[in-house]
Amino acid sequence: MTAQTAAEREMAELLIGALNMTHLKADRVDPTAPLFSNTGGGWGLDSIDALEIALAVQQQYGVELRSEDEQVKPAFASLRTLTELIVSRCA
Fold first, then answer.
1. pLDDT at 39 over 80
2. What CATH architecture does domain 6-90 belong to?
3. What's this model's pTM, rounded to 2 decimal places?
């Protein structure tokens, strides 16, 4: 597993809580694993989960993730890419 940053762990905790994925432990999530695939340790999420994530991120950080934003779709590739986008928009 790739090591997590503090921001990635915080984001993992947010996602786990928002998606009620209590079987996952935030400190054991590979930040490079794909969010929308079951292979390679992926989370296996779907489009409804993406909406839940967008809502949780907006509530927690005040950052809107809009589908028409060209940076949003690639950001949902992994926990790491999503965290990087959110951190860059909070700065």
1. no
2. Orthogonal Bundle (1.10)
3. 0.92
